[in-house]
Amino acid sequence: MEYRFSSSVSQLKSSAVRDILKLTQGKDMISFAGGLPAEELFPVQAVREAADRVFEAGSGALQYGLTEGYLPLREQICERMAVKGMHVTPDEMILTTGSQQAIDLLVQVLTEPGDAILVERPTYLASLQVFAMRGLKVIAAESDEFGIIPESAEELIRTHQPKLLYSVPTFGNPTGRVWSLERRKQMLELCEKNGMLIIEDDPYGDIQFNKDEQFPSLFSLGGKAENGHVLYTSTFSKTVAPALRTGWAIGDSRVIRMIAKAKQAADLHSSTMDQQVLSQLLQKFDLDAHIALISKEYGERMAEMESLLKKAALPELSWITPKGGMFLWVELPDGLDAEALLRCAVQKGVAFVPGSSFYADNVKRNTMRLNYTHNKGARTEHGVARLVEAIGEFTVRS
Amino acid sequence: MEYRFSSSVSQLKSSAVRDILKLTQGKDMISFAGGLPAEELFPVQAVREAADRVFEAGSGALQYGLTEGYLPLREQICERMAVKGMHVTPDEMILTTGSQQAIDLLVQVLTEPGDAILVERPTYLASLQVFAMRGLKVIAAESDEFGIIPESAEELIRTHQPKLLYSVPTFGNPTGRVWSLERRKQMLELCEKNGMLIIEDDPYGDIQFNKDEQFPSLFSLGGKAENGHVLYTSTFSKTVAPALRTGWAIGDSRVIRMIAKAKQAADLHSSTMDQQVLSQLLQKFDLDAHIALISKEYGERMAEMESLLKKAALPELSWITPKGGMFLWVELPDGLDAEALLRCAVQKGVAFVPGSSFYADNVKRNTMRLNYTHNKGARTEHGVARLVEAIGEFTVRS
């Protein structure tokens, strides 16, 4: 039997991260590849108690739910959003299977195949997969330590007239960088002027190491949901736990209604068990204290990895110290191919994601993404030692 | 702000069932509309104990999982499938957010916009929404009490050369009918001869009132997954509980791998919390005994509703007694428009789904779908009485 697959899925590259994760099944492998939160920090007991309260409420908890998601949880998320200057009603929000689904549905609802979408270079791998699946033309603006460069974006907008900007402005994946306030305002203005909508993907915004600085969301700077240009997505995957697969999108209620229509076809609704557990959790558990705790811990793990890399004193290795999020984005010596390096590193028992995965075009091959949240102490030490050894050898070899 | 939505989502009709469910929020409304299982039969205590065992296993349970789904659960479902003559390995299976997502992903992977897809007339509403979202041309073959009519299908295949057949051969939604063995074999042969793949959607197959008869799945008749023509989907939504949103697709491992690629973009993976709970549940809970219990109960509820309708002795009302599933499909007097009837019925405090929602073309307006699983006893009695009153009045009026 010859199966003929759709052109969109056929051309889709399998995720490098996924393929690497398969390589890292061996027990002695230390992986800086996946964007995994630290399991030992998951609030298991609190989630368990929350689940108990859901079951106590009776069998209705196991029935079909609304496509838009469990209303009490939407109300609770609205309250949490308001604290960050994002004032929305439950009608302006839909719950999704992680924020990944929110991105996919937004793209389904707001674009036609062949439309152009503007992104930052580099950008989140699995969003590039969404754009490929939907047949979009990805155009990538340059970025620097302050975020996407508006002049680069403007030129591309003029040439390609993209419908949408997809952005991860706060502690982005893969770079961990944060857009400056000025850049945020410039990009908002630029998109408004050109009638472009913005998807602001914010899974990492809560994971900030030092709270002195403020990074207001594009959504909060843009005003309100109604008639707004910004569609904001976030998730509990990084702050509570990924297995509960609960994310959300907020925006004008007309957009949310369209997403609900698309979601009906996609899966009717996401797990209401998970949504009810999260709702119960938020009632008794101090999530903000928990976020403070994991942010502190992740900040320490980042510092640990950074100091190990500094100590190694490899020539021509550079990075920008992240102020939050889960990733360290490292530039390797010119001409060093991180994909080739990975094969060598895996033999030594350490994995990372080659930067090439995060580029839609103009791939910068001498880059890599290191996750620092999933390991610590001796494992991070050994992992970095193996990595440094691989880079050393590889530099000599190449 | 003028939002421009994609043509696929713009043209999508909002689900009639959904709109009706909104109408039925009032407390005195008796709804035969939604395809809701009986809440009071959900195995809440067993699910709760299963969840407890998941939490006892520790924090790893809350981490990211595989796109293909939790492996132990896939292995358990393989065992359950084998009992039904469907022999597959975990590599030939992917877990999805309900079987709705399995249908959506199969369509994404196996079709291009503009392709034709063959269905039975009438067919499952939310699958029609998937086909509309993906830009497919739906062609509908006639059906009778033995299922889809091969001669009608053959003619359409010759004219339109569809890539796929979408079918619900066992206790279908909305008709509750089951394809005869002969029709099953004819359709398998017809599709094989024409190089067409078959999506066999089987959410209701387990809910059989009398086990004397056997209705082997198209998948089991077709042989094995490898190189097979049949892609089979099912779900725990009807046998355990919908809130856990766990369905699956089985088929050739190449198809499954493509689905996994599409699913990565769609949502990375479904709730692994739910999947782990179901896996724990299957270890201790006698699901087959539970299925026997709900099948018996649903059979009684169907008989109850049927006898009430018979007693009413309305002229020109007809239906085929279902042998399983959740729906009674009723033909009303010629010329009676069930959508108009619904507005009248809702005023009397009873709701159903007008049959028109289940047609891609050649709509038969004098049909309605009644769910009999969610109500019983006095509520069913009152509901049917109200419905009979509405039909009586309406027949006089029209």
TrEMBL record, chains A, B:
Q: Which cofactor does it need?
A: pyridoxal 5'-phosphate
Q: SUPFAM superfamilies this protein is in?
A: PLP-dependent transferases (SSF53383)
- List the keywords (alphabetical): Aminotransferase, Pyridoxal phosphate, Transferase
Pinpoint the Aminotransferase class I/classII large domain residues. Answer: 30-376
Q: Which InterPro entries match?
A: Aminotransferase_I/II_large, Class-I_PLP-dep_aminotransf, PyrdxlP-dep_Trfase, PyrdxlP-dep_Trfase_major, PyrdxlP-dep_Trfase_small
Presence of keyword Transferase? yes
Q: Where is the signal peptide?
A: none
Gene Ontology MF, one: transaminase activity
A Pfam family found in this protein is Aminotran_1_2
Q: Which CDD domains match?
A: AAT_like
| Domain of life (superkingdom) | Bacteria
- Name recorded for this polypeptide: PLP-dependent aminotransferase family protein
